[in-house]
Every structure is written in C-alpha cells, then in structure tokens.
Specification:
- The protein is built from seven helices and five strands, in the order H-H-H-E-E-H-E-H-E-H-E-H.
- By secondary structure, it is of the alpha+beta class.
- Among the domains are: about 35 residues, no CATH class; about 170 residues, OmpA-like domain (60s Ribosomal Protein L30, Chain: A).
- It has a five-stranded mixed beta sheet.
- Helix 1 runs antiparallel to helix 2 and helix 2 packs antiparallel against helix 7.
- The chain is rod-shaped and about 195 Å long.
Length: about 300
C-alpha cells in the first residue's frame, strides 16, 4: 500500500513540473490543489483501509492467540485425561490380576474343601457302617439266643430285647434257683446247668462281648437269717451264675460283671403271684462294652475333626 502512495506522489510531482511549463501559474495552482485534494482524499481512504486492515489483523492475531491458548489448554487437559486413563487402566489391570488370583485361590480352596468333605463323608459312612454292623451283630446274637433257648422261650421263661446297642436276655429265676435261694439247682431235673451251658457256648463264640449279670427279686421279704434283704439276695444270685459260667464253662471272667437290683426294677406289678414270678429273674445284659464302643466312636469322630 505504501508503495502505491509513493508511486502516486512521484506521479503528482511529475505532473506538477510538466504543467508548470504549459499553463499559467493560477491554473497550475488550481490543478495542483485539485490533485492534492484528490490525493489527500485517497490518502485518507487508504489510511483508513490500512488502519482497518491492521485492526483486523490484530483482532485475528488475538483470535489466533486465543485459539492457540485454548488449544494448549485442551492439550494439557488431554494429557491429564490420558494420564488418568492410563492410571485407571493400570488399576483395572491390577484389580483384574487380583480378581484372577483370588478366583484361583478360591477355586483351590473349594477343591480342598470338596476333597475334605468327601473324606469326611467317607469316614461318616464308615462310622455308620460300624454302628450298623454293631446293631446287626446284636440282633444276630439275639436271634441266636432265641433259637438256642427256644424251649424256655416257648414256656414264657425267657424274653429277648435289643435296647440301644445291648441285648437284654431275661430268664426266670426259677430256672436256676429255688424261691428265695441263691444256690444254683443242679439236680438232673433242673434246666439250670443246660441253660448255663447253652449261654456259655454263645458267649465263648463272642469274646468281644461283655456281660453284666443282674439279679432281680419280687418285693417279698427275704429270709433274714440268710440274707440281709432282697438286694443282698439278688447280688448273691447273680454271683452264683457268674461263678458257674467261669468255673464250669470256662467263660473269661474279664467279660463278666455282677450286679443286683433287688425288688427295685420290677417288670410288672407285684400284686399277683404271676407278677411276682415275672419280677424274679436273672438278666443278662450283653454288649460290645460301652467303653469299647464309645472309644471306637470317639476315635472315628476325632479323625473327622482332625481332618
């Protein structure tokens, strides 16, 4: 733009010199004035355009600077967001790795628990089998006793019952003793010896069994010259049975326990003679032995807890 102004100025001076030689001074001045006025107007217009262009240029520079600032800020925000994304990605990877590790650990724990549960179920099954076998053995023993003592059973002189893990064999005292006596009736007409021989054969085939022999009486007064009371009589009766089983039939004394209940555990009322007959009895309580059974069960349960 300034180059155009300079060109016009040179042209103006040239025209002025040319005209000064051709026209009068007055006309020359008028022409110069007109040209100057036109030049000034054009100069003013061009100056305005220049200022306007400079203003636009400055405004555009400001806009560019602003945009550059915004772009820089955006880039800064973008960098921060990218850093945050990278950090979150790292956290996600860490959480994923931790979750996978915990899942694997949990799966291993579950497998261990399942294996432990299977072992415990196996031991429980073994315990159930043991208890079932014990119960079956007692039931088999009861059937053996009933078959072997069928004559007494048919006469109502013997009863058989399984109570828990025990066989309760009750035989009328009249089979072994005269009423109110504790010495075993060994006469040939008596069934005492035959009955004890039968019982001893059964027990000798079951050396793992323990036998408690319990004497019971009715509530009649005992002969006080021979016995202090019915309790004394009942204990002496059971002791006589035990002695004969050991001495005559070689039963292991470690299998035997002697006890007496007197008239205190009747099976029926003592108001009738029939009731008194039923209450006078010798009871054989046959079991594997509570201590043995309890120890075996505890041992198996302990193995469950330890594992």
């Amino acid at each position: 733009m300034w180059r155009r102004i300079q060109l016009r100025t040179v042209l103006f001076l040239a025209v002025s010199i040319l005209l000064s030689s051709c026209i009068s001074t007055k006309k020359h001045q008028e022409a110069i004035g007109e040209m100057k006025s036109g030049f000034d107007a054009e100069l003013t217009q061009m100056t305005y355009k220049l200022e306007t262009s400079n203003y636009k240029n400055d405004s555009l520079g400001l806009v560019i600077a602003q945009k550059e600032g915004e772009n820089k800020a955006l880039l800064t925000v973008q960098d921060k967001l990218q850093d945050r994304i990278d950090d979150l990605q790292g956290q996600i990877e860490n959480v994923t790795d931790l979750a996978l590790s915990q899942r694997q650990s949990l799966q291993e724990t579950i497998q261990d628990k399942e294996k432990d549960l299977e072992e415990k179920e196996l031991k429980i099954n073994e315990l159930n089998i043991f208890l079932t076998d014990t119960e079956n053995a007692i039931n088999d023993l009861m059937n053996t006793c009933r078959d072997s003592l069928s004559q007494l059973d048919s006469l109502g002189q013997a009863t058989f019952a399984v109570v828990g893990n025990e066989l309760h064999l009750n035989i009328s005292s009249s089979v072994f003793f005269q009423k109110g006596r504790h010495k075993i009736n060994t006469r040939s007409s008596s069934n005492a010896i035959k009955t004890l021989e039968t019982i001893s054969k059964i027990l000798n085939k079951n050396p793992d069994k323990y036998i408690t022999i319990v004497g019971h009486t009715d509530n009649s007064t005992a002969n006080t010259r021979s016995y202090r009371d019915n309790w004394d009589l009942s204990v002496l009766q059971s002791a006589s049975i035990a002695q004969m089983l050991v001495e005559e039939f070689e039963l292991n004394p470690n299998q035997l326990t002697v006890a007496g209940k007197g008239e205190f555990v009747p099976t029926t009322s003592n108001e009738t003679s029939e009731g008194k007959d039923k209450n006078r009895r010798i009871q054989f309580v046959i079991s594997k032995g509570n201590n043995v059974l309890v120890r075996e069960v505890k041992k198996r349960l302990q193995s469950l807890r330890l594992n």
